[in-house]
Amino acid sequence: MDLRFVVLSGKGGVGRTAVAAAIARAAASAGKRVLVAQTDAVERLGKMLGQPGPIGATVRNVAPGIDAVNMTPRESLHQYALLVLKYEAVYRALFANRAVRGFLSAIPGLDAYAMLGKAWWHTTETGFSGLKYDLVILDGPASGHAVAMLKIPRAIIDATPGGPLVKDARALCELLADPVRTALVVVTRPEELPASETRELVGAARRDLRIAVGPVIVNAVPPDRLSHGAAATVLDRFVRGPTGDPRLDATIDIAAGARAHSETAERVIASLRLDPGLPLILLPWLPSTDLGAPEIEKLAGALTSALDRQQVP
Ligand SMILES: Nc1ncnc2c1ncn2[C@@H]1O[C@H](COP(=O)(O)OP(=O)(O)OP(=O)(O)O)[C@@H](O)[C@H]1O
Ligand SMILES: [Mg+2]
């Protein structure tokens, strides 16, 4: 909660956006001013933060203490170019040129860098009384793309002799490399594939990126009500074979599936715990197909209590 820049990644669909919204809620409740910056994401954040409509490509306030933006490469580049070029007319003269547009679209990584750069810029943005945001949460791209994105600033420094682009890339690198201010937070589900992608991403970050790896967030952990206690005894009795009642058999199948799911979750969580440098934060599975503000509030509560527990020596 004291970080300034949190970069979220992980396998597609595991709940990065839900976790971004939950961190934002938890931080805002602790009195922080937060920006959630999405990287051209499928629009789900609006509903999660209790908004009737989508977030859109312009920063706006969405809840007390929380601003949000769904960055697009084009809009981010436009804003960055304006910061450098100062005048819209100069921007238009340059960027309306087809040759320039063709040249820009051929630069690998420019789209990702435009959005990472914009998110970084917001960490430096000032308002009436100092910095505008205490915390910027980058709802980043899925694993492989995130690694590529986070490598770009260093590549710019290594490849370019000087100028404003290098100055900003250097400041961005310093922010990414500072464990007091920044962490890469990987989100996963307690399932085999997302967990193995998590291990790969953490490995790549430790090997190839200068960024601190924060806790891994294991999202949507199913409740374990069928492995112990009375329900487990009943299930054990019936699961041995057909009962002769098709409705009862169907119900037993569902219960057995739920138990297998939570046993897999337990096994995957245990295997992730084998890495001692990787604290885990578990967030519950919530019985909803489309998370809204009340569910995000629950995830924020679970996150806050997990962080409080971790701070106990
Ligand atoms: N803890 C949870 N319990 C139940 N459902 C969840 C939970 N977290 C996320 N979901 C659901 O899972 C789906 C994916 O969540 P989300 O959009 O946050 O994932 P994502 O990683 O951002 O996906 P994408 O790769 O599309 O950006 C959504 O339908 C969301 O409602
Ligand atoms: Mg998302």
Number of DSSP helices?
12
Order of helical and strand elements: EHEHEEHHHHEEEHHEHEHHEH
The low-confidence parts are: none
Strand order of the largest sheet: 3-4-2-7-1-8-9-10
Q: Specify Rg, calculated over alpha carbons.
A: 22 Å
> Roughly what is the average pLDDT, rounded to an integer?
92
* Molecules bound to protein: adenosine-5'-triphosphate, magnesium ion
User: What is the CATH architecture descriptor?
Assistant: 3-Layer(aba) Sandwich
Largest beta-sheet characterization: 8 strands, mixed
CATH topology: Rossmann fold
Short description, anyone?
The chain is α/β, with parallel strands linked by helices. It has helices spanning 16-29, 45-48, 73-85, 88-95, 98-105, 110-124, 143-159, 164-177, 192-208, 229-238, 246-273, 293-311; strands at 5-10, 34-39, 60-63, 66-71, 126-127, 130-131, 135-139, 182-188, 216-221, 280-284. It has a single domain (5-82, 108-221, 277-311), classed as Rossmann fold, CATH 3.40.50.
Q: What is the strand and helix layout of this fold?
A:
Blueprint: E1 5-10, H1 16-29, E2 34-39, H2 45-48, E3 60-63, E4 66-71, H3 73-85, H4 88-95, H5 98-105, H6 110-124, E5 126-127, E6 130-131, E7 135-139, H7 143-159, H8 164-177, E8 182-188, H9 192-208, E9 216-221, H10 229-238, H11 246-273, E10 280-284, H12 293-311
Parallel strand pairs: 1-7, 1-8, 2-4, 2-7, 8-9, 9-10
Antiparallel strand pairs: 3-4, 5-6
Helix pairs in contact: 1-12, 3-6, 7-8, 7-9
Bound molecules: adenosine-5'-triphosphate and magnesium ion.
Adenosine-5'-triphosphate binds at residues 12-18, 41-42, 44, 142, 219-220, 283, 285-286, 288, 290-291, 299.
